[in-house]
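re: ur question from yesterday

yeah so i grabbed the chain u mentioned. its 366 aa long if i counted rite. heres the sequnce exactly as i have it in my notes:
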Amino acid sequence: ASAFFVVVYLHMFRGLIYGSYRKPRELVWIFGCAIFLCLMAEAFMGYLLPWGQMSYWGAQVIVNLFAAIPFIGPDLALLIRGDFVVGDATLNRFFSFHVIAVPLVLLGLVVAHLLALHDVGSNNPDGVEIKGPQAPKDANGKPLDGVPFHPYYTVHDIFALSMFLMAFTAVVFFAPEFGGYFLEYNNFIPADPLVTPLHIAPVWYFTPFYSMLRAITSEMMYALILCVVGAAAFGVFKAKLPSFVKIGIVGAAVVACALMLAIDAKFWGVVVMGGAVIILFFLPWLDFSPVKSIRYRPDWHKYLYGIFVINFLILGYLGVQPPSPLGERVSQVGTLFYFGFFLLMPWWSRIGATKPVPDRVTFVAH
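ran it thru and got these structure tokens back, copy pasting raw so excuse formatting
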């Protein structure tokens, strides 16, 4: 699972920096994000199956988060567990979902992802379209910059796969626990409902989102309210919008602030954790840059993307550490930066002078 998520995160990062989510590949990106969401569900349900201490208590913590949802939360958590505590009923239904239901959904999404990709073609590091009506073609109507899948892509992918398998087998044979990050030491202890581990943390590929969940405290709610008020003020006083839209913005901001004050911070932590994944679905409509690829964007965009990656890694590190006042503050700043990166993208993405984009894919022989 850890190796799989390494590949998934690298795949998503490549799409992020080369603009693979931009038109005409919005559907490819949406299916990819849906696959990522299903993979998280698949990993979570499979995490309970070893029935170790971290499996048991991790499932207990995550399922209890659903109880924070107003009105329906306690009944929803009971429905997911199948009992008042994580037990045989939970194990049986998670096994069924992990082995049958979610893999079938994943299979359908992968097929849809590939069909959508086949229709529009793969992206490239230049962000240049090679299959469109304006793309250069030969006498037979085939793209001049396109290459057959075999042998070019197959040999390329076989080489990449061999390099990945070398790293994978090195971890499997020499460091399967990877310092407790891939296989937690507490999970070698059989589950005991009467003994709670000193520190409960999810597997590393969930920790950035878990860190955002822990960052939402009662104090943090006031910072979020200030963000909502600031965004509403900008929309009312600075944006050129119709009057009825501005009235709607003010009304929505008032309702949002009232809900933030009335509902417990635990619920909003769940909302933030879920929103950190859901916001990826809207990326094609948040990026207003005139060019797709990071190659031709302003240089400061590269630094911003680099800070985003570092911030995500820091959130992941803090997610596996025990709670601390300093870690809480850093997580809160990191959470604000994560959402600010996406929510402010319609503005910052079009700032700065872009470099000229070539008409055809560039190639420099090694």
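noticed a couple things. The two ends are 34 Å apart (CA to CA). also Residues 203-366 form one domain.
anyway ttyl
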